[in-house]
């Protein structure tokens, strides 16, 4: 007797359908395949079941043949092989084999073929038929695979962003040479790419998103700790610079201080425009909130906070580059802190009164 065994090691048939295993008989195996195809048309195990039925139909009618589907379990390979052995014993007990049964295994890959020793310990194996979906071998399957990868947001960000950064390195270098841009563009681009890979490897993108959300919440909720923390940080940086300037001789030729002053110059030139953009954006959000009926007085803190923060950063960066005096730094930092405190208090009072009037 020839027994066509369709093997599903991880029990997709049992997990995705209501079919109980083992499944014995041509019609039962065919119905199980239809049920699995209805539940998950992309599961390769349904091709194993249909192939088992196909082999059963092509066997010489003068030979005694049976077809059955046996499954393992999801998780441990040891537990899955044990479950396959138990189901095979149940199949053999239900068939009249007279001790001369031979098996033909039908699988969809090397993982399912790990049950060969388990089956061989119970019945002689005539062969193994591995079912390979024909489309997986041609260009059409590659096209749809790439299309599915691009459609997946997580995979798209993981694959396409690094590839895009790599492809941008050469055109950026050409553009930089045409504009006589100083600096090593290849070094900057590769450095940014390296930072991106490190961030992806450490899972920092989620933490960065959370930090941005917390910053926006603090900006619109009127949390004065945002300004006080920034002022404290700026004062700490100023203190470090003042302490270093007291060294004899001053380390004016150290690269780290040259780079620091250049960065401070970039910040000093850009902060005014960035602050203007932030004021415009926050003002638009406040107006939208008013039109939607979700306006709260504390939302008006955002423009004042931006002015206070930008003034403090502009003064600190200007003092580091030498374009601003220490008195100007003191006045701007103090004024920014007082502006933030005053706006927080004023809009908190206005918000409390509006709630009292509404109640």
UniProtKB/TrEMBL annotation:
InterPro entries per UniProt: DUF373
Segments crossing the lipid bilayer: 159-179, 185-203, 224-243, 263-281, 302-322, 328-350
Keyword check for Transmembrane: yes
Keyword Transmembrane: yes
Keywords, ordered alphabetically: Membrane, Transmembrane, Transmembrane helix
Name of the protein described by the UniProt record: DUF373 family protein
Organism, scientific name: Halococcoides cellulosivorans
């Amino acid at each position: 007797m020839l027994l066509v065994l369709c093997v599903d090691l991880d029990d997709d048939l049992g997990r995705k359908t209501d079919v109980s295993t083992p499944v014995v008989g041509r019609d039962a195996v065919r119905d199980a395949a239809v049920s699995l195809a209805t539940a998950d048309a992309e599961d390769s195990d349904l091709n194993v079941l249909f192939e088992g039925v196909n082999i059963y139909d092509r066997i010489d009618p003068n030979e005694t043949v049976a077809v059955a589907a046996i499954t393992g379990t999801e998780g441990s390979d040891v537990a899955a092989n044990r479950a396959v052995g138990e189901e095979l014993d149940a199949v053999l007990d239900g068939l009249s084999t007279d001790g001369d049964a031979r098996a033909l295994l039908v699988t969809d890959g090397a993982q399912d073929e790990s049950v060969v020793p388990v089956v061989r310990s119970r019945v002689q194996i005539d062969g193994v038929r591995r079912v390979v979906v024909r489309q997986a071998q041609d260009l059409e399957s590659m096209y749809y695979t790439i299309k599915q990868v691009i459609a997946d947001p997580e995979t798209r960000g993981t694959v396409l962003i690094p590839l895009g950064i790599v492809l941008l390195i050469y055109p950026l270098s050409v553009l930089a040479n045409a504009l006589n841009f100083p600096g090593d563009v290849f070094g900057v681009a590769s450095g940014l790419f390296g930072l991106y890979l490190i961030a992806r490897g450490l899972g920092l993108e989620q933490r960065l998103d959370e930090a941005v959300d917390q910053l926006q919440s603090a900006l619109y909720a009127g949390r004065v700790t945002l300004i006080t923390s920034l002022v404290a940080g700026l004062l700490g940086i100023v203190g470090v610079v003042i302490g270093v300037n007291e060294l004899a001789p001053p380390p004016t030729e150290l690269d780290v201080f040259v780079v620091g002053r250049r960065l401070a110059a970039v910040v000093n030139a850009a902060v005014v425009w960035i602050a203007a953009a932030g004021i415009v954006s926050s003002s638009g959000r406040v107006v939208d909130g008013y039109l939607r009926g979700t306006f709260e007085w504390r939302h008006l803190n955002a423009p004042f906070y931006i002015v206070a923060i930008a003034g403090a950063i502009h003064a600190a960066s200007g003092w580091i580059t030498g374009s601003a005096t220490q008195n100007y730094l003191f006045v701007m930092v103090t004024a920014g802190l007082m502006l933030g405190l005053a706006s927080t208090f004023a809009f908190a009072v206005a918000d409390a009164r509006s709630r009292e009037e509404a109640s």
